[in-house]
Amino acid sequence: MNIKIINKSEHPLPQYETAHAAGMDLRASITEEIILKPLQRILVATGLFIELPIGYEAQIRPRSGLAYKHGISIVNSPGTIDADYRGELKVLLVNLSDTVFKIVNGDRIAQMVIAKHETVVWQVVEALGETGRGEGGYGHTGK
Fold first, then answer.
1. What is the pTM (predicted TM-score) of this model?
2. Residue 64 counted as an annotated binding residue
3. Does residue 140 form part of some domain?
4. 63 marked among binding-site residues
5. Torsion angle of alpha carbons 19, 23, 29, 30, nearest 10°?
6. Disulfide check for 25: which of 4, 58, 108, 131 has CB 3.0–4.6 Å away?
7. What is the count of structural domains for the chain?
8. Segment 7-64, tens digit of pLDDT
9. CATH assignment of the domain containing 78
10. Which segments constitute the dUTPase-like domain (predicted)?
């Protein structure tokens, strides 16, 4: 799949790091380092602009290493970039740890997965089909 991209950062384009990776790392494109305090959230620029085909989205997800080692995540995880969005890709990071975290230009801050999605047409009905689970949810199995 070809996707149009504008790169206004000084960093390489996002790429797959392994042959079967689903996500591509996004890098911070900032002029000054960011100190992210505990429980603080901030929008971090990437310098990237994309044009997705209709029927696709870009999902912005946390990097597992940052989450595990430093408690850095994404507030609205996964974030969704819609096919009609043309603005700069930015990542809404949050520091869930009890220590400050420093972000510098070029740091890998998130990953992006391109995914196909469907557009639904609602069919209003009076009843839904029966299943073994029924309305059970939120720990209903007791496990």
1. 0.88
2. yes
3. no
4. yes
5. -130
6. 108
7. 1
8. 999 999 999 999 999 999 999 999 999 999 999 999 999 999 999 999 999 999 999 9
9. 2.70.40.10
10. 11-142
